[in-house]
Amino acid sequence: MEVSKNHDFGTRAIHAGQRPDPTTGAIMTPIYQTSTYVQQSPGKIIGEYDYSRAANPTRAALEANLADLEGGRYGLCFASGVAATGVVLHLLSSGDKVLLGDDVYGGTNRLFHRVFAQLGIETVLVDMTDLDAVKSAMDERVKLVWLETPTNPTLKIADIEAISEITKANEVILAVDNTFATPYLQNPLALGADIVCHSTTKYIGGHSDSIGGALITNDPGLHERLKFIQLSEGAVPGIMECFLLLRSTKTLHVRMQRHCENAEKIAAHLDAHPKVDKVIYPGLESHPQHELAKKQMSGFGGMITIYIKGGLEESQLMLEKTRFFACAESLGGVESLIEHPAIMTHASVPADQRAKLGISDNLVRLSVGIEGVEDLIADLDQALG
Fold first, then answer.
1. Residue 22 pLDDT > 90, yes or no?
2. Strands (E), the chain
3. Which of 35, 94, 184, 321 fits a 20 to 30 Å CA distance from 256?
4. 244-303: per-residue pLDDT in tens?
5. Taking residues 307-311, what's their average pLDDT?
6. Which positions are catalytic?
């Protein structure tokens, strides 16, 4: 049976883009571990496959699955999230300008400012929670707006629909990194975005065993341009990674429910903890964009940022003492992770920019897993002392 947009997210997660293998009846999409495909005669290919950099049946199933979950027509997969981001930037030319959210993943910031700047593409940092700032930064050279929501690591929420009205009025492409929210909690295309980006390494993969990225769009022209760059640059994922990601999307809805449930309980607990100065979580009424998060998201996610009382010494000690929260970069796995952005994921961000954003020595980022929530709370309590 073919799935449609009317089916439940969980049904689509398990079935969209996939069908039993026509040769064997295997219910899981096979791993087509091949680099090339036999042609009937020169230039006369069998089906749609001639070379796996261009297309592969396992990857095609994943791309169709992710596109469906985001409510998009077209999906493209890549070797990593930053590889996907780079393909979007290759839509631009020397002299073009990008408006970049001021609080984005450190690797994204580095790619824009230290790699594509060499190609003559200017990046201007903008607080995407300030619509007036977005409007005032617009000029004829701006060709792309790139934002994360929620942001990494201070979990700011940008109004996708309002920003899309600004970009459409100025004929500017709007790309939204939806890694933290996932398509289960938020659908930027439905809110007016032109491109959705994912680091599939995170929640979509969910098991800390694969690295990948994805782009989804509804625009056939954008898809054609992005696919040409994908083919030409060749930063495509390995087929085993595609297989693992297809395995993972089947449980995305179940995992995200538990991530959200655990994070909401932990955020409330830490908000009252005597050793915690401040908790940032979109589900808390104290969050400055709490109402916006309720409007454009169906849940508040599994990421929490806290400011502990003290400084670098106290935060390092906490990260050394946790047991279930493993001190590691990345996020979105079934296991809980804890990290220090100023030293780890955002070390490449200039110190003055970190200070402006509040990425200080006492800021700690939690990726709440799906373990028993009482065990996780007890772990944090003993680590905070």
1. no
2. 39-41, 44-45, 74-78, 97-101, 122-126, 142-148, 173-177, 195-199, 213-217, 276-280, 303-308, 326-327, 337-339, 363-367
3. 321
4. 999 999 999 999 999 999 999 999 999 999 999 999 999 999 999 999 999 999 999 999
5. 94
6. 53, 105, 177, 202
Assigned domain for 2 exists: no
Domain count, the chain: 2
Closest listed residue to residue 131, CA positions, set 292, 284, 266: 292
pLDDT band at 1 (very low <50, low <70, confident <90, very high): low
CATH number, domain with residue 264: 3.90.1150.10
Question: In terms of domains, do 26 and 149 share one?
Answer: yes
Q: Are residues 192 and 296 in the same domain?
A: no
H or E segment at 81?
helix 81-89
Using the predicted structure, report yes or no on whether residue 108 has a pLDDT greater than 90. yes
Full domain range(s) for residue 157 = 9-249
Q: For residues 57 and 165, give the distance between their C-alpha atoms in angstroms, rounded to a whole number.
A: 37
Query: How far apart, in whole angstroms, are the C-alpha atoms of residue 143 and residue 172?
Result: 5
Length of the chain: 385
48 & 196 share domain? yes
CATH number at residue 155: 3.40.640.10
Mark which of 216, 232, 249 sits at the end of a domain: 249
Class of residue 313 by CB neighbours under 10 A (exposed 0-12, middle 13-18, buried 19+): exposed
Tally Cβ neighbours within 10 Å of residue 131: 15
pLDDT band, very low/low/confident/very high, at 349 (cuts 50, 70, 90): confident
Alpha-carbon distance of 188 to 174, in angstroms, equals 10
Q: Are β-strands 195-199 and 173-177 bridged in parallel, bridged antiparallel, or unpaired? A: parallel
Is 332 found in the same domain as 205? no
Write down which residue in 206, 222, 249 finishes a domain: 249
As a whole number, the mean pLDDT across the chain is 96
